[in-house]
Amino acid sequence: MNKKIVLMGNPNVGKSVVFSRLTGAKVISSNYPGTTIDFSKGKMILDGKQVEIIDAPGTYSLEPSNRAEEVAVDMLNDADVIIDVVDATNLERNLYLTLGILEGKKPVIIALNLWDEAKHIGINIDEKKLEEILGVPVVPTVALTGEGIKSLVTRMREAKSPKKIKPTSEEGRWIEIGTIIKKVETVEHRHHSLRDILNDLTIKPSTGIPIALGIIFVSFWVVRFIGENLSFLISEVFEKAYKPILLDFGEFIGDGHIYNILISQDYGEIIFIESLGILSTGLFIPLAVVLPYIIAFYFMLSLLEDSGYLPRLATLVDNIFHKLGMHGFGIIPLFLGLGCNVPGALATRSLDTRKQRFIAATLLAIAVPCMAQMAMIFGILGEYGLYYIGLVFLILGILYVTIGVILNRFIKGTSPEIFLEIPPYRRPSFRTTGKKTWMRIKWFLKEAIPFMVLGVTIINILYTIGFLQWFANSLEPVMEGLFGLPGGASIAMVTGFLRKDLAVGMLLTLNMNPLQLVIAATMLTIYFPCVAAFIVLIKELGVKDMLKSASLMISTAIFVGIILKLIFFGV
Amino acid sequence: MNSKEIPLAHLKKGKSGRIITISKGHHGGSFGVQHGLHGFQRRLNVLGIREGQIIRVDSKQPLMGPITITIGNSQVTLGRGIAHKIIVEEI
């Protein structure tokens, strides 16, 4: 058995940066069994032997108050050696966890991280004295630059379980911390720095909200730039390199059901977006359509996360989102979802309770069109003027807010108030941000893509047995009667399972007037997520909640369709 | 309650106060269930929100939105409901 080293510490102390300094290139990010809590695992060589190193979720104490903290405590119990990462700028409160860890029987070494920052703001810590008092090695580190990491590694074998720390009550521990702080820490007066001014500007509503809008706008621009170009490049690879191979393979298997399922529903030319084959559309959608936006969005998200901006954004928007049954972090699924619903659905896990996650996911699926879909809505309605485009987004916005308020009232469960630490701004390290982005992408490749291929396969089989055609046909009278749309719109609705943007595009061939287009485009957004997002939502919410959520989507779509028809065309 | 003792939620922006007590009264559904009463109190404690500590109000979001405070070297955002339960004496 490999030795297990576990990194413990409060949130926002640079634990992940220490982790990425200690581990090599091979890092695995996985979910803790039975939870959706992410953690990273890597390997390092210590005294000639390979050891496993685990980055536990940040925790404030060993008496867990949420799922992530429970996981951290479990990991602690499994550890052979503990590296306690302590924020030198906040020694007092970090020591609460430290003393808790030291009360256990495990060998411990302390990394006094953010050492440079503490000096910079005028905090001096006598680390020798601290080491003497605690009875375990204390190593000052600056993980961002790598300073002190070497000595952390060489002193790892000195890690020990101290004799001096006795278990005590919570109050007793705070008193003990008070005495330690008096002995080891001196604080000089600090000046107002540029960072303080920046902090102030981004959290005050009067300046913070315009800045937030600016940052969101720039983020979208960057995501679109990276996403579009990457998507184009990957599509080219599919067209130029992969298609000829696939065509040859098609010749080889010949016509029949196997050809239909694996390659295409039509013979002859392969159109990656609509052929429905497992090897054509099944691979093309996740890799060439979804993946580029996943990469772009996760890069941007990691960057915003590592710079420390997200908690400020959450503070600014908390007010609105709390009324919709979430809290400030509810903006993240919305933000990501406007790019692609898949990362949006994955981000619902940044919310605390089941109720909050359910609301965030349902609102995302109902009222948040992805970038590709938005582009198509602009495409089909653009010629009639901004008025109609605005109408679609106005309806979706009203739905987001109204349904949020209603769900907040009627869904059981709690939506706790926001309570979150605002970390100081930090210059993101491209090493850590890059690693984080890469780990998230790897997770997506491993966990989400097989399910998306499965989704396309199921649709393909439903098509092969004629179910989808029958379904579209039987919907035709409904389209005309209830929503005032041409019967052919039912085919677009069915296609929408696969690709929303493609479905919106199909509306063009039906010769509708602009108001009909508004109804159809709005309903297409609401009625169901595309297959990729649907699969991820099942994974995140569980089958039961997803069924509930899906019935809400379908009934909302029908309701909105009927109401719009009545408003636009009368009875 | 002394006349100078007010809930943190009523402290003006830019002002500081010393924490007198953290109300253990009815926490309702807003956060009591999720963290457990005790866990929640501990989280406040660990972030430095304890009796006798000095707290400064940095910003208040409009329309009963959350309050951002500085305590020691940390900055924390908390909901108005929580801020009503922390009783301070303005200094």
In terms of topology, how is this protein built?
The complex is a heterodimer of chains A (571) and B (91).
Chain A: E1 3-9, H1 15-22, E2 27-31, E3 38-46, E4 49-55, H2 67-78, E5 81-87, H3 91-103, E6 108-113, H4 115-120, E7 123-125, H5 127-134, E8 138-140, H6 149-154, H7 170-184, E9 185-187, H8 194-203, H9 205-253, H10 257-262, H11 281-307, H12 310-323, H13 331-337, H14 341-347, H15 354-367, H16 371-381, H17 386-410, E10 419-422, H18 430-464, H19 467-483, H20 489-495, H21 500-506, H22 514-527, H23 531-541, H24 543-569
Parallel strand pairs in A: 1-4, 1-5, 5-6, 6-8
Antiparallel strand pairs in A: 2-3, 3-4, 7-9
Helix pairs in contact in A: 3-7, 8-9, 9-11, 11-18, 13-14, 14-23, 15-17, 15-23, 15-24, 16-21, 16-22, 17-22, 18-23, 19-20, 20-21, 22-24, 23-24
Chain B: E1 5-7, E2 16-22, H1 28-35, H2 37-46, E3 54-60, E4 67-71, E5 74-78, H3 80-85, E6 86-90
Antiparallel strand pairs in B: 1-6, 2-3, 2-6, 3-4, 4-5
Helix pairs in contact in B: 1-2
Summarize the structure.
Chain A is an alpha/beta fold and 571 residues long. Chain A has helices spanning 15-22, 67-78, 91-103, 115-120, 127-134, 149-154, 170-184, 194-203, 205-253, 257-262, 281-307, 310-323, 331-337, 341-347, 354-367, 371-381, 386-410, 430-464, 467-483, 489-495, 500-506, 514-527, 531-541, 543-569; strands at residues 3-9, 27-31, 38-46, 49-55, 81-87, 108-113, 123-125, 138-140, 185-187, 419-422.
